[in-house]
Amino acid sequence: MSFRKGLVYALCLAVLNLGSPMMAHAELVGTMQALEASTRTQDLATVSAALAREQVREQMTALGVDPAAVEARVARLTDTELRTLADRMDQMPAGGDALAIVGIVFIVLIILEVVGVIDIFKKT
Amino acid sequence: MSRVSRGGRRFPAVAATLLLLAGCAGHSRLVETTGPAGLPPQVELTATPFHPQSDQQCGPAALATVLGAAGHDASPASLSQEIFLPARQGSLQPEIVAAIRTRGLLPYELEGDLGTLFAEVAAGRPVLVLQRQGFGPWPAWHYAVVVGYDATRDLVTLRSGTRERLQLRAAVFDATWSRADRWAVVALEPGALPARTDLTRYLRATAGLEATQRYEEARAAYDAAATQWPYEPLPRLGSANVEAALGHWREAERKYAAVLRLAPGLAAAINNRAEALSRLGCRTLALRVLDDGAARLAPDEPLRPTLTRTLAAIEASPPPADGEPALCAQLQVR
Fold it and tell me: SS3 of B84, please?
């Protein structure tokens, strides 16, 4: 088969294929959506997933995540998780360090000391 | 301080502390939780790896612990890149869930009670938990991993922070855990079921695998639930949706039809079967399935608009030029 003949076949196929994206396909109902419908806990989110994704991306960057890592971290979240984070990222409990407690105790002790409730720090 | 000291002269102080921590909730002893549930009186998963946390990295450390126990070794330092938020000085639950899912494991969030928690530990799975420590307006949120319990001594054993084997009185643990809404997650091998499965929670976690394109794992998890609950339509719907996502329309159609035999009025299955039939070229049957299904929907069916759109899309599509495939004649509306 000559190159030209091959090219003609390839172009014909390409033209035929052009038709397929034009076919309007209906939407499938995802399992998550079916689950929400069946339990009547439909997510009444006004925020679209795309908008939530953008908000999470911005917030992550603002919270100091390496910009190179933001995209990968956003990509693996579900729409529901994205909406949760978009809404509440700055209030959600951030499990970090229980040791912060030591600092708080110290501050409380100093306050108590200053107002004279306790007397545990040696005064010079 | 000795966390395991019992009774004696210190009892009033200990009791006061517990009341403070537990509020007004009465605490029943652990044997009352484990005994009737048929759980062993004491369990400790000693083989669970230990990753001592560095500064503020209890999230990555706890995550590395449960991932390692599930056979997916990862260092806390590398996990920190995935879940740590520098300005919040910590990690958030959805990102921990996502990190488990990314490894092809099922992040199942447990119902928050000690019985369910211990049932997982007794089944050999360490459980990642969130605790709220600190006082009043100064909360300190902390991730740790429950690796054991001792109902005879009322103790819970954790990998926590820099402590490889922290034993807390059950009441103290439960007080810190309950103030974090008793959040707990396990990393399940897809196809394995939790010790006590709440089907909705399980399906929600599995749908997360599906939504993030972990199709093989999602199908294994749906199929396990379909075996366990043969008369529940949603696990089979999930499995069919995975086939559709993979472009296996013939297999998807077969599975949707099976779902509809269990639940003839399930809107999602009616809609998706019609779409699968349409993709197979069986336009006539697709329209009949929608017509037949419309009569079976619940009056307040929230997916009604979706079905209307699907009907319009299939009606608008031209019939196959050279007739419908022979396959269509073998299929039936019900």
Answer: strand
What does the alpha-carbon distance between residue B184 and residue B194 come to, in Å, rounded to a whole number?
Answer: 13
Which residue of chain B comes nearest to A37, CA vs CA? Answer: B302
A-chain residues within 8 Å CB-CB of B279? 25
For residue B317, give the nearest of A24, A42, A62 by CB distance: A24
B63: closest chain A residue by CA: A95
CA distance B229 to B239: 13
pLDDT of residue B4: 42
Which residue is closest to B99 within chain A, CA to CA? A76
pTM tops 0.95: no
**Residue A33 contacts residue B268 (beta carbons within 8 Å):** yes
Question: Which tokens hold the place of A121?
Answer: 């720090």
Contact list in B for residue A42 (CB cut-off 8 A) is 302
CB B55 within 8 A of CB B89: no
Q: Which residues of A are less than 8 Å from B207 in CB distance?
A: 30-32, 35, 78
Residues B193, B224 contacting (CB under 8 angstroms): yes
What angle, rounded to 10 degrees, do the helices at A67-75 and A49-62 form?
A: 150
For chain B of 334 residues, list the mean pLDDT of each consecutive stretch of 10: 44 53 53 84 95 88 97 95 93 97 97 95 97 82 96 95 94 94 97 96 96 96 97 98 97 97 96 97 96 93 93 92 90 88
Taking CB atoms and an 8 Å limit, are B302 and A95 in contact across chains? no
Convert the pLDDT of each residue in A31-43 to its tens digit. 988 988 877 655 5
Q: Which residues of A touch B81 (CB under 8 A)?
A: 66, 69
CB contact at 8 A, B201 and B207:
no
Q: Do B88 and A90 touch (CB under 8 A)?
A: yes
Q: Which long-range contacts (CB under 8 A, 24 or more apart) does B255-261 make?
A: B257/B331, B259/B233, B260/B293, B260/B334, B261/B334
